[in-house]
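Continuing from the previous page of notes. For each protein in this section, the sequence appears first, followed by its structure tokens. Read the first protein now.
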Amino acid sequence: MFQHDDHDHEANVLHSSRYGFLVHCPGCDRFQLAYGTFRLSQDKEELRSFARLINRYVYRYLRRVERTKRDIFIDSPFPGFGLIFSVEDLERLNNILQRGLLVLDAGDRVRLQ
């Protein structure tokens, strides 16, 4: 169970690893992504958009030799605020997002049958 907006909700864990997790609350249809030192709460389209952005960055830096140097800046919609990642950070985050979305999509397909 997790808490947001002053309510407790039963969350479906879509993916969890030692680096973070992605959960979905069917009650309010929101997703929470926790990774490193940040947490996002988003709706499905926002989450998919963020996952596409991270996936593009992973492929942009795929061949980089220096995998642990944190110098990849991703801007945010908030002025003066962004996120800084290494290639390894991006790959770990992308793993959480892509695996979680696969579980979500598989569940959606099952419900539609």
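Done with the first. The second protein uses the same format. Note its length before scrolling.
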Amino acid sequence: MKNRIVSVVLMLSLAVSALTACGSSDSNGLDTGKNAAKTEAVVANDTEKALAKELLDRSATPEDKITDGVVNEVIALLKDKYTFEKVGTIYVEGDNSVYAAQGKGWFKNLFGDSGIEVQIQQSVDDDEPSLMERGELHFANRMLYPYLIDKKNDPENKLVAVWNSDNPPAEIVTVVARSDSDYKSFADLKGKKIASSAAGCPYSTLIELAANQGWEYNVDYEHVNTKEYTAALLAGEVDAIVYHPSSVVAPLLLSGEGKIIDTAIDGGVYQSGGGDRVIFAPTQYVKDNPNVTHAYVKLNDVVGAWVEQNAKEAADVEEAIDRVPAESTEFWINSSGGTLYTSPDSLNDLKDNARSFSEWLVENDKNFEHPIDVENGFFAEEYFDVG
């Protein structure tokens, strides 16, 4: 009975919860009055003010102690530095940083005095280009794989990346089996059924793990292409799933029904850059609104570091917006460490990474036929270190 109850809860999660990994979370936004008032009351001390001043000219790092006071001071400095364009409403795709900025009142603190409201859009995964075309989305938060998919279908360069994360840990993609199974590693799955969505970035990890074993696709294992992966695992329809331990998979692990038997290959294609996260926007919007874009990117940089360092509080704040249980979000934040920090790599290195990953995908993923042209409209270069 317990297993059946947990399974029903997980299946409901697939319908009402969002993925905060390759994509976004569902949300109608949040009345942040109470949280915003509390956040505004936090005044930076001298140490926090000094760090905030530094962070205007460099990215936050794990060594920096990012507090509410630091974030508030960065916001004050950004408001002094920029006169924001009259954009009215900024529509954004939800992720952990976005929910924190919304729930803590940081978006309101930054843009509110200029008459700008930030709204989180619902259910935008895989629809970002069309929403941006209609002016219904301005900033999307995706991993490199779906951005490469979008750019493959963007010959006119209507989309451009304005931010790139640091590399993820191997734990950002997990191989999960039922806890009552005898499987102990990916190698034990030879001849078995493995589920993942062929349109998602964990599919890259599945391909890489199989290649590392010398396995032939759908010969040495059977790939089940589905987005109902947790339900398939619980029903015994597949032997394992390969996916992010995000808001859909985390409950399976926290309940004890599922176990992690492997992760992305440490130092492999995905962990060393294929799993990077990017923020992208309509190219014309970035050109027309550089001050808004610069401020949004910098706030993301600082708030992302705050989320990494305050995972429990960030998860509690997010739960009030997207209703995903905080323990699941905290589990995901702790599993994806790194992807909320800005990459320390130069623009040339980021180009090399995107190019090499796309070349690997051409060789290994039928969704890609040609390498991506990273020199033409892939990055908005003024937002990156050009060294």
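What the second structure shows: The CA atoms of residues 52 and 74 lie 5 Å apart. The radius of gyration is 21 Å. We return to this in next week's lecture.
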